[in-house]
């Protein structure tokens, strides 16, 4: 077996030119062939790539999709994000556990199935959903589970199951992101200009980054173009890991050519020859169709050497599949991951446009932004700038899910009100709306006339709706669980702070806190936001802070009066002890003995 393992790893490493920056690809391929990454495999990978085994071990331990111990031949990942739990994910977990005879994190005795949970898989519009060996099964019910397990255990093709369908759920298309497009149109118009003129066109459009931060695209491109380096790189961030976000999935299914052409225009503008699409691991089922689309682009002369007949204009795109880490949506963490490392955010400055991938100037934009670039060069910056608001030009793709009759993806002009959105998705009785996913903020009816725009309610695209019967604060707690689990652990304020937030919020929700403890909770939120190294810690307290502001009465209803409330419930603790020891509990308020021998 060691000889066979050695041969497999040598072959895989050679496939990637024994390049240590391709460690992620090598590890994924080895994991796929051998089912896990043992200490032997880690050592052999390190030897073949010429790096220390500690670097391989460090990277492997960081990502959710890598296992150090043997897994089942089939791996089922059940999505347990908030929207999924609103739609019955907990009951689905119970059904799988009962049918398989194991719990989450375990493998069946026959080695056929491992059952795991996933934080989010980008399918909140068709929840609850699971991934089986990377294949998505959607809109599941507990009664579907026996048939699914039977098919898995009998070796049937998973993609032939009736539940193996990913709907686009494109509810409303628009003129920019999801309108008709002829491959190469934007590129052919861009190459008639100089790189400087392309940037001028982007300035005229007022296009801003669509990942949430809203940084002016033209400024970012201009800085990258003028930064000195041996090479320049273009990266598309397709790692939309924010729970409740799935818009990029729809673009990549519906209009990937817009993305490719936007990246090619970027390469022409900044002088890059290599581009990468960092595709979230949960979207691996899209990879085949994307590779075919890229191959078609090459046949059309839109990628490769001498693009569109321009001598020396050489550029190509490869897809880098990720391995499950929310933090890699942050651009510097993404670059670390692309280089074969754990996805820990870098200290900045320098920024990626100055020193990014392989320490060279690197342009990172998300899927939606590259689509916007293609439209700007296709129709002109002035055309683009006529859409939207004064400070938010163009349109925005929204991933809408939760308690609404029409979940899905909607392309809307910036400036649309929340009230109008709720009307469109048939959720006018909404108790609350989470704007921007867990890292965003929660608003109530008094703010439904506010607008989706950078100057009012900015969002990367996630809109989660909570109906009138939902316990909003319990869902905020679940958001907190997500952040505590996804923290990279690099800095203490985030690593420790997110755990303390959960502990303190639980005390409030269980009625074991006073106003004093609520004030301390708010102070803790402030410390985490101020002291954390990257955006995860900066935004992790948002669910708590926004609901305290918007729904103070929900917190007030759970607080105890006075300055002190004992967090230990003596009767509850005694009851648990008596149950464990087989004794009978008497209420201590009666004056009788608390326990007696049974």
TrEMBL record:
Its EC number is 1.12.1.2. The keyword Repressor does not apply. SUPFAM superfamilies: Nqo1 FMN-binding domain-like, Nqo1 middle domain-like, Nqo1C-terminal domain-like, Thioredoxin-like. It is an enzyme of class 1 (oxidoreductase). GO terms for molecular function: 4 iron, 4 sulfur cluster binding; DNA binding; FMN binding; hydrogen dehydrogenase activity; metal ion binding; NADH dehydrogenase (ubiquinone) activity. Residues 473-518 form the NADH-ubiquinone oxidoreductase 51kDa subunit iron-sulphur binding domain. It holds the Pfam family NADH_4Fe-4S. Keywords: 4Fe-4S, Homeobox, Iron, Iron-sulfur, Metal-binding, Oxidoreductase. Gene3D superfamilies: 3.10.20.600, Glutaredoxin (3.40.30.10), NADH-quinone oxidoreductase subunit E (1.10.10.1590), NADH-ubiquinone oxidoreductase 51kDa subunit (3.40.50.11540), NADH-ubiquinone oxidoreductase 51kDa subunit, iron-sulphur binding domain (1.20.1440.230). PANTHER family: NADH-QUINONE OXIDOREDUCTASE SUBUNIT F (PTHR43578:SF3). Belongs to the complex I 51 kDa subunit family. This is NAD-reducing hydrogenase HoxS subunit alpha. It comes from Novipirellula herctigrandis. The lineage of its organism: Bacteria, Pseudomonadati, Planctomycetota, Planctomycetia, Pirellulales.
């Amino acid at each position: 077996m060691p000889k066979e393992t050695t041969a497999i790893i040598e072959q895989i490493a050679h496939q990637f030119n024994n390049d240590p920056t391709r460690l992620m690809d090598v590890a994924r391929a080895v994991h796929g062939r051998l089912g896990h990454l043992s200490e032997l495999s880690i050592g052999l990978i390190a030897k073949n790539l010429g790096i220390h085994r500690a670097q391989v071990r460090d990277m492997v331990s960081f990502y959710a999709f890598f296992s150090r111990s043997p897994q089942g031949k089939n791996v089922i990942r059940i999505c347990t994000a908030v929207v999924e739990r609103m739609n019955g994910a907990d009951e689905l977990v119970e059904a799988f556990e009962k049918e398989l005879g194991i719990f989450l994190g375990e493998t069946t005795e026959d080695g056929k199935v491992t059952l795991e949970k996933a934080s989010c898989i980008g399918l909140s519009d068709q929840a609850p959903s699971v991934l089986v060996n990377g294949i998505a099964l959607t809109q599941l019910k507990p009664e579907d589970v026996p048939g699914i397990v039977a098919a898995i255990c009998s070796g049937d093709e998973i993609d032939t199951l009736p539940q193996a369908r990913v709907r686009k759920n494109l509810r409303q298309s628009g003129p920019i992101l999801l309108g008709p497009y002829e491959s190469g149109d934007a590129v052919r118009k861009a190459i008639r200009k100089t790189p400087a003129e392309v940037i001028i066109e982007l300035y005229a459009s007022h296009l801003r980054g669509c990942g949430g931060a809203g940084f002016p695209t033209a400024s970012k491109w201009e800085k990258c173009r003028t930064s000195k380096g041996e090479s320049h790189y273009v990266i598309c961030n397709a790692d939309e890991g924010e729970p409740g976000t799935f818009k990029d999935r729809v673009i990549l299914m519906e209009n990937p050519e817009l993305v490719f052409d936007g990246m090619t225009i970027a390469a022409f503008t900044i002088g890059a020859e290599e581009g990468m699409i960092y595709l979230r691991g949960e979207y691996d089922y899209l990879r085949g169709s994307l590779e075919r689309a890229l191959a078609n682009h090459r046949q059309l002369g839109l990628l490769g050497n001498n693009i569109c007949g321009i001598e020396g204009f050489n550029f190509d795109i490869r897809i880098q599949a990720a391995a499950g880490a929310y933090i890699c949506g942050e651009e510097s963490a993404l670059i670390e991951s692309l280089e074969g490392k754990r996805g820990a955010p870098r200290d900045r400055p320098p920024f990626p446009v100055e020193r990014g991938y392989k320490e060279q100037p690197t342009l990172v934009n998300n899927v939606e932004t590259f689509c916007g670039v293609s439209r700007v060069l296709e129709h002109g910056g002035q055309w683009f700038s006529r859409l939207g608001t004064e400070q938010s030009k163009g349109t925005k793709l929204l991933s809408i899910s939760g308690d609404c009759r029409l979940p899905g993806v909607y392309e809307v002009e910036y400036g649309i009100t929340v009230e109008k959105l709720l009307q469109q998705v048939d959720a006018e009785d909404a108790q609350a709306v989470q704007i921007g996913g867990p890292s965003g903020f929660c608003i109530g009816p008094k703010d439904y006339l506010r607008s989706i725009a950078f100057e009012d309610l900015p969002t990367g695209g996630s809109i989660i709706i909570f109906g009138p019967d939902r316990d909003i604060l319990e869902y905020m707690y679940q958001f907190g669980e997500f952040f505590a689990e996804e923290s990279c652990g690099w800095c203490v304020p985030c690593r420790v702070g997110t755990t303390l937030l959960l502990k303190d919020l639980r005390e409030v929700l269980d009625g074991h806190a006073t106003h004093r403890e609520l004030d301390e909770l708010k102070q803790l939120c402030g410390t985490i936001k101020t002291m954390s190294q990257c955006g995860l810690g900066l935004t992790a307290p948002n669910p708590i802070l926004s609901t305290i502001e918007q729904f103070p009465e929900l917190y007030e209803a759970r607080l105890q009066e006075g300055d002190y409330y004992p967090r230990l419930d003596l009767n509850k603790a005694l009851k648990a002890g008596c149950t464990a020891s087989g004794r009978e509990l008497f209420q201590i308020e009666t004056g009788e003995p608390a326990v007696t021998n049974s």
